[in-house]
Amino acid sequence: MQSCFALPFLFNLQSGVLMDVKGVIADYWDKRSHTYHNDLNKLRADEHSIWVGALKDVLNGGEHLKILDLGTGPGFLALILAEIGHEVTGLDISEGMLEKARYNARARNLMIDFCLADAENLPFQDEDFDLVVSKYLLWTLPHPERAVDEWNRVLKPGGKVVLIDGVWFDPAINRWLRRNLSTLLAIVTERRNPWRFKRYYNPIKDRLPFYSGVKPHELYTLFNEAGLTNVSLKPLSEVQEFYMNCGSLSRKIIHKEPNFILTGEKIRC
Ligand SMILES: C[S@@+](CC[C@H](N)C(=O)[O-])C[C@H]1O[C@@H](n2cnc3c(N)ncnc32)[C@H](O)[C@@H]1O
What are the phi and psi torsion angles at 268 (to 5°)? Predict the structure, then answer.
């Protein structure tokens, strides 16, 4: 198991405000880890091949890669990538999530390093990984530009950053209505507590630049300013279609929000 000292270090150095935001986020995901992990286990078998297909363009045609999965949660991408033979480290700010991720890796006989740390302050040396991936993390980061700089730092030259996200909290009225309908369904069918999310995130959402979603040109700027090249953004149409056909009713509604995959490459020297 990798030893990761970044989190206490970060907490000693950062201002009180930043510490609060990160503390709130870690606390929320600790509490959400149980239901999030259950969702993952319900859908895993079918989702696996859909996501392998969605990632195949960034996996260098089967070459063995050293991969860092940021905001790994219960290990969704880390498990898929380890299952197809890559050397994976999963990192998260929530110990609750990492417990679930370790459990999921053990249950599948997979060797994955899991590390409690902050995706904006990585405890790794420069040029350590071939690929840095994150799924559904960007929207909850207070300093996305700092984060992408860090991701670029730990990449080997020619390595790639892969970011998967969606426009989750678009304030447009039709999307707002659909989101709330999805929430109501989740309360009834999945016994989730949606007010917990609002209680945690409403006070901090103004500090999260991408909380309400991102526009493609902002992402290009984010990656280009971090020094990444060959930046490309694609819609995740197959993934979207999968959730439309196979997910729970509440997921079907929320997954109409566009999902995308953004990749950028570290300049070779
Ligand atoms: C929406 S979940 C996504 C989990 C997983 N990637 C997935 O797709 O199922 C967001 C995850 O990011 C983690 N997270 C939030 N802020 C973080 C940070 N600054 N550093 C590392 N992880 C963070 C949360 O604890 C949570 O596990």
Answer: -80, 145
Which one of 51, 67, 93, 120 would you pick to mutate in the ligand 1 pocket, going by the greatest count of ligand atoms within 8 A of its CB? 93
CATH number of the structural domain 6-166+209-239+258-266:
3.40.50.150
The minimum-distance atom of ligand 1 relative to the CA of 75 is 5
Angstrom distances, CA of residue 138 to CA of 48, 71, 183, 186: 22, 9, 21, 23
> In sequence order, which residues have a C-beta less than 8 Å from that of residue 101 and are 6 or more positions away?
72, 73, 74, 75, 78, 79, 90, 92, 112, 114
Q: What is the pLDDT along the chain (269 residues), one digit of tens a residue?
A: 444 544 443 343 344 444 589 999 999 999 999 887 766 666 566 788 889 999 988 997 778 999 999 999 999 999 999 999 999 999 999 999 999 999 999 999 999 999 999 999 999 999 999 999 999 999 999 999 999 999 999 999 999 999 998 876 666 777 677 667 777 776 666 666 667 888 899 999 999 999 988 788 899 999 999 999 999 999 988 888 887 777 666 666 665 666 889 999 999 87
**Residue entry with tokens 């969606």:** 166
Going by alpha carbons, the residue nearest to atom 11 of ligand 1 is 71
Query: What ranges do the domains of the chain cover?
Result: 6-166+209-239+258-266
Which atom of ligand 1 is nearest to 29's Cα?
Answer: 25
* Dist. CA 257–CA 62, nearest whole Å: 31
Distance 269 CA to ligand 1 centre (A): 32
| CA 74 to ligand 1 center in whole angstroms | 9
Pocket of ligand 1, beta carbon within 6 A: 25, 29, 70-73, 76, 91-94, 97, 118-120, 135-137, 140-141
